[in-house]
Design a protein that fits this description.
The protein is α+β, with helices and mostly antiparallel strands. 27% of the residues lie in helices and 23% in strands.
């Protein structure tokens, strides 16, 4: 065989043999000398293209839920003509790239694919950027806070890899709306979750509506929040699928008591039976128990629901009582008890027990509770964590137990019961309307350091408007005139000057404005004013022509004011929250993106019922702002006019009056009005 191979090689030409040997030598050289990259610090093998990460301070944009907060925005600097790119930053400490390759124990310098450089921002702040060729890369975590933009890595469908980066110019969310009707959905309130707001302490056990802590940590009832609670559930009732409803006890079955389990006590006085209730004209469950303690089991009805967590029932008690729901929750290894008692309207957490006070229930009362909301409010009661960030929830409702002496009927579980919450809100507004037709806010409010504080007992046009929208829908739903009558009464404050306890102000002594906050000088908050107009529109469409005449007049005057003043809120890249830059001659109070999206939703509604082109054109422009489409920059000659405006404004602020003399229109159709902000 060996001789055969030698003989075979002899048939190769000499130059072919040389080429073959060279190829074999080259392959051997490559195999034995492949580079291995070592970390300079610890010698571990790493990826030579591993990117170092910048160490920046927390760049997350805080989501301040307070209703009125000035937003100090970092300005956008001029970055020159070069193209600037971004990379996502995990805000980790810098990791040193490798400093050398190992080539058969011989080290040669490693050249990374990029170079870390200093980036000086507005001559104030230096951050670390990356340069690769002619491109410069800036950390997105810095850009996110600097420009107030939104972006994140999106995972693939299998959830394993970050496949793409998604960028939004703003956090504003714009939803489509159908043409507005007075009995239909209310704006985009199907996206409102009032119960989950951090500044809702809990849903009152007595009233069935939110208790606000927005300006007072002790909690108070705030008509705006209550109306929004009702309107959001009314709207969700129209947009959500039909609810899944399971009735566990209505006492109509002949063997209804068979499902109930008796507690451990052997006291003969403890009993449960089916009786006929004259007031309700139906059969109900009557129970008597001498025990009254958390450890007592009373009488128990198994529920075993894993998807319906909203409970409703009718009850009446003649003594102390406890209604106990035994539930299971995520990441909790033992049973949780939600206990509702005849105690004061409050919430308390004790270990694995969450207590809610329902107040006295000595007469028949319909009670609806969202067990998930009650559980989550209880576990976050003493946490700093926001309820929105809390992922814990109920996974199963096991049973209901009753302790004390009383009667109960119609024990039902729902996946949601929107109309019950809506009626709770409308009923609260009905019960708590005062003789002036309003719902006073019993906390002090200071909108700006340069404005006088508003003492407790003030009225808000936004509260009046949203309450009217709630009450008119309650009238349409129930056909009970008392709701419409309350809505008609609510218009009285629209005609009373804010300086005299009402909500009416006038811009430049000409345009009527319904103030969300009756400040001195006027604040002219945009979203509150538009909500007040929507309420008037709902009323004039619901009441008869005679009853709705005043609402129609107030609405028409308000719409005329909005048409003439809307451009004053336009910044060319967003909108302002109010007009304090006129009344106080200070920096404009730029609307956060959340408020800007509210302005958009309100303009969508108004544009659907009013054909004036100013609403549609402003709407389109403001939607464009959410995507970074800004107003055109004027040429230098516009600066002369701006200086003229500034010169005329300077020196005319005499507390309430801000005398900005009327100027003739500029080449850019800019109109400056004579501003006197005193209330009429």
């Amino acid at each position: 065989m060996r001789c055969a191979k030698i003989i075979k090689l002899k048939f190769l030409h000499r130059h072919e043999l040389i080429i073959l040997l060279c190829v074999l030598a080259l392959v051997s050289f490559i195999i034995t000398r492949l580079p291995v990259c070592n970390d300079h610090d610890n010698g571990e093998e790493i990826n030579p293209r591993r990117a170092s990460r910048l160490d920046l301070n927390d760049a997350n944009v805080d989501d301040d839920e307070d209703e009125d907060v000035d937003n100090e925005k970092l300005g956008a600097g001029n970055h020159g003509d070069g193209e600037i790119k971004i990379f996502n930053d995990a805000r980790l400490k810098p990791q040193h790239p490798p400093t050398s390759w190992k080539w058969n124990s011989k080290k040669v310098p490693y050249v990374p694919p990029y170079e870390e450089i200093d980036c000086l921002v507005n001559d104030d702040v230096t951050i670390t950027a990356r340069k690769e060729g002619n491109e410069t890369y800036i950390p997105f975590s810095f850009l996110q806070k600097y420009f107030e933009i939104d972006g994140k890595l999106m995972k693939s469908q299998d959830g394993r890899d970050d496949k793409r980066f998604v960028w939004h110019h703003s956090t504003a969310r714009v939803y489509d709306q159908n043409k507005y009707t007075c009995d239909g959905t209310f704006m985009t309130f199907d996206h409102y979750h009032v119960e989950q707001r951090t500044k809702v302490k809990y849903i009152s056990g007595v009233e069935g509506v939110p208790l606000s802590t927005q300006w007072d940590p002790k909690g108070y009832f705030y008509a705006i929040q209550i109306a929004q609670f009702g309107l959001s559930h009314y709207t969700k009732n129209l947009t959500d699928p039909a609810p899944v409803v399971i009735t566990y006890e209505d006492a109509e079955e002949q063997d209804a008591l068979r499902k109930w389990r008796r507690g451990t006590t052997s006291d003969a006085k403890n009993n449960i039976k089916i009786v006929y209730d004259e007031e309700r004209a139906s059969r109900v469950v009557e129970f008597k128990s001498s025990e009254y303690s958390v450890s007592s089991k009373g009488f128990t009805l198994p529920l075993e629901s894993q998807s319906q967590f909203v409970v409703s029932f009718d009850a009446m008690f003649s003594s102390n009582f406890s209604i106990i729901f035994s539930v299971e929750a995520e990441n909790v290894n033992r049973e949780i008890k939600l206990i509702y008692t005849n105690g004061e309207d409050d919430i308390e957490k004790k270990g694995h027990v969450i207590l809610h006070g329902l107040g006295p229930v000595s007469k028949w009362r319909h009670i609806t509770r969202n067990l998930v909301t009650d559980y989550r409010k209880g576990i976050t009661l003493k946490r700093k964590e926001s309820l929105k960030k809390t992922k814990e929830s109920i996974t199963r409702v096991k049973s209901i137990s009753v302790i004390g002496n009383g009667r109960i009927d119609n024990i039902t579980l729902w996946n949601y019961n929107h109309m019950a919450h809506f009626i709770d809100a409308a009923s609260w507004l009905l019960r708590n309307q005062d003789e002036k037709g309003g719902w006073p806010v019993d906390v002090e409010r200071k909108l700006d350091d340069d404005m006088a504080p508003i003492p407790p007992g003030w009225y808000s046009a936004m509260a009046q408007g949203q309450a009217i929208s709630t009450l008119t829908r309650a009238y349409r739903y129930t056909k009970e005139y008392k709701y419409l009558q309350a809505a008609l009464q609510a218009t009285k404050l629209y005609t009373i000057p804010s300086s005299k306890g009402g909500v009416l102000a006038k811009f430049v002594d000409t345009y009527p404005w319904y103030e969300e906050y009756p400040t001195t000088p006027g604040s002219f908050v945009l979203n509150g004013f538009m909500f007040s107009l929507i309420g008037l529109y709902d009323l004039k469409c619901t009441a008869s022509a005679e009853e709705g005449r005043e609402a129609a007049r107030l609405y028409d005057e308000g719409i005329n004011s909005l048409k003439n003043m809307l451009h004053l809120y336009d910044t060319g890249s967003g909108s302002t929250y109010d007009l304090r830059h006129f009344t106080l001659q200070k920096t404009p109070n730029l609307a956060r993106w959340g408020y800007h999206s509210t302005h958009i939703a309100q303009l969508q509604l108004l544009a659907s019922i009013n054909s004036d082109p100013i609403f549609k054109s402003t709407l389109d422009r403001w939607i464009g702002y959410t995507k970074g489409i800004k107003g055109k920059r004027q040429k230098n000659k516009g600066l002369t006019h701006s200086k003229e405006i500034g010169d005329r404004v300077k020196g005319h602020n005499d507390n309430i009056d801000a005398g900005i003399k009327t100027l003739s229109p500029s080449p850019f159709d800019v109109h400056i009005l004579d501003v006197r902000m005193s209330a009429p």
